[in-house]
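QA checklist item 7 of 12: single-chain prediction sanity check.
[x] sequence parsed
[x] length recorded as 383
[x] structure emitted
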Amino acid sequence: MAKLPVVARSAIRKPNESMRLIVVTIVGVVFGFFIGISFPTVSITKLHFPSSIVSYIEDRNSGLSAQAILNHAWTSARNARGNGSVPNTNDTLKIYVPTNPRGAESLAPGIVVPESDFHQHRLWGNPDEDLPFKPKYLVTFTVGISQKENINRAVKKFSRDFAILLFHYDGRVSEWDEFEWSKRAIHVSVRKQAKWWYAKRFLHPDIVAAYEYIFIWDEDLGVDHFNGDEYIKLVKKYQLEISQPGLEPDKGLTWQMTKRRGDRQVHMFVEIMAPVFSRDAWRCVWHMIQNDLIHGWGLDFALRRCVEPAHEKIGVVDSQWIVHQVVPSLGNQGQSENGRAPWEGVRERCRKEWGIFQTRMAEAEKAYYDMMGVTPPNVTFVS
């Protein structure tokens, strides 16, 4: 009978302890909630819990580390807040635009300038007032000083709508200053290189994007029957993406297909002597030019791959014609070997490049069709 009061006191104490536990739990939950909304960006990886809690969690979840469980819990809670959460300030302020040009993803799109031009600016004054007039077209010649007078006559066939760019293969630039137009022209001087070497390195599509048409001409062309503005009118009239002036019959023709035909304004086929490209066509052609094949032989037979339909978009403008004077100025920049003239070595290199280009094109297209699992069309190369 002496033990009855002890039992009674124990029975009374248990409800009080249960109530205390409930109150403490509620207070803890409320306190934790306010802590959570006060520090929404705190990283769980930076919180350190007592070793007893860590041990308890790991014991209850064998195979998972305590930190991994806590990280998962924190991530779930943060995601559950949804749109009501406060964003991470650092992540929000970090710029990343995947549609920007490669390498410029960290820039705001409004400051990105992916293209350029050959427009010349002053060293003084307001930049907005530098260019009261901008040329619409670009004409390039690959030149040596021996063809100075011929180039002077050619340049005069182009109006102020045409920017002039000279590639100098002999390094002699200052001697052109006797011509007033030369002082406004762009001059690029690299010794003993060919036209397509310059084109690949200095006429990137993003550099010439400001120009509607790009002329890439040789230096030994007679232009007595040519006018730049009239030529552009016909190119636009017939919607030609790749074109060239007709060549006077029997005057240095490479292909009979480029011979001028007096009974029409335009016919099909273009070679690499005096091609003219629209900016869109040039973007394709530029990517087809090989870095090491500097003479461009064989390129004319591949131009059709860059426009569609080729028979409508490629043409020779017969009513504006030129004469190929066949002056081997660049050829004489070669090296005499085994008793042969310098130009003979240059011509041999041209033929080798043609064969290499044909092989590369055929192998590239075969690899593509094999990858796609389809039978390639029959392609005949001219050799």
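[x] summary fact logged: The first strand starts at residue 137 and ends at 143.
[ ] second reviewer sign-off
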